[in-house]
Write a structure and sequence with these properties.
single chain, 118 residues, alpha/beta, Rossmann fold, two-stranded antiparallel ribbon, 5 strands
Length: 118
Amino acid sequence: MKRFDCIDVDFVNDGKQLVDKVTTTKIPYGIIMSDYEMPIMNGEDAFKQITALFKSGAIVWSKCPMVSVTSKVASNENDHEETIQLLQAAGADNVLGKPFPVSRLADELRRYGLLPHE
C-alpha cells in the first residue's frame, strides 16, 4: 500500500490480483478503481467476481463504489455505450473515459466522500 496525500492506494497488475487483493484485505476500501483492459483477467470480469463476492457475503465489509477507467468510452469509439452498459452490469458504479485530467479523478473521489469538497 502506498500513501498519496490523504489517501492510501493499493496497486495491482491484473484483474486476478485485484480480486485476490479485495478478498484478502482486512481494511475496507473506500473505492475500487480498475482499468477495463488488464492482463490475465479484464476489469469487467474482475468486477463481476467482486460483485458476486459482496452479494454472497464472502467479503465481510460493506460494498464500496467501483469505478472503471477505459479508453473504450472515448468519443471516437463506436461501442462506448455498450462498454458502459457491460461495466455497469458487472458492478461498476461509474465509468471514466481515458485520458482524463487529475481534476476529474479528484471529482470522482469527492463524489464518494473520499476527498473534501473545495
